[in-house]
Each structure stands twice: as C-alpha cells, then as structure tokens.
Write a structure and sequence with these properties.
Layout lengths: L2 H7 E4 L3 H10 L1 E6 L5 H12 L3 E9 L3 E4 L2 E4 L3 E8 L15
Antiparallel strand pairs: 1-2, 2-6, 3-6, 4-5
Length: 101
C-alpha cells in the first residue's frame, strides 16, 4: 500500500461511551475509515502510523439516518467504522493523533 493511501484510510478516532469502555477493558480502538477500506489496509495503516501490533480488525458499515426538517426529508451519509484489537502490551494514545484535512 502506498503512503498516500496509508494516510487516507483512517479518517479519525470514533470516541463514544462504548468505545472508551472497550478501550479500557479490551484494548480495542474505534476508528472512522473510508467507505472502501478493507481490513488488511486498516491493519497496515494502524501498525505503521502508531507503531503497535494489531491482533484483529473488524469493520462495519453504519447506515445514515433518515431525518426530517419541516416537510422535507433528508438522509445522512453512510460511513464505516473499524474496531481494532491491539496485541497484549501495546497501547495507542489518541491525544497525539491529529486528523489532517
């Protein structure tokens, strides 16, 4: 994978109450990724950018919600998230991670 693709696969961390609990308990980090990202690309990007060992990667597509404003209906965009499980003894400090763009 080339460097441009490597840096563009991860869009940023996805921090929710559930993701913070998973990070503390199971060494899992949630990321927003490109819609066409694959598991092997996400694994390689996390390993090279953060210099950690990745145990496994799970990817899921989140469907955008349908919203209404007065008489008009709209739809939010679909997006993808990746749950990255780190190997024992490895950790990522998300405070150092900065999203470019």
């Amino acid at each position: 994978m080339n460097d441009i693709r490597l840096h563009s696969v991860l869009l940023g961390p996805h921090t929710t109450e559930k993701s913070v609990m998973a990070a503390e308990k199971n060494r899992q980090i949630y990321f927003k990724v490109l819609l066409n990202a694959r598991k092997d690309e996400v694994k390689e990007a996390v390993e090279k950018l953060f210099k950690v060992a990745v145990d496994s990667v799970n990817i899921m597509k989140v469907r955008g919600k349908t919203k209404r404003f007065r008489q008009r209906t709209g739809k939010r965009s679909d997006w993808k998230k990746a749950v990255v499980s780190l190997a024992p003894g490895h950790d990522i400090n998300l405070a150092e991670f900065q999203v470019e763009g």
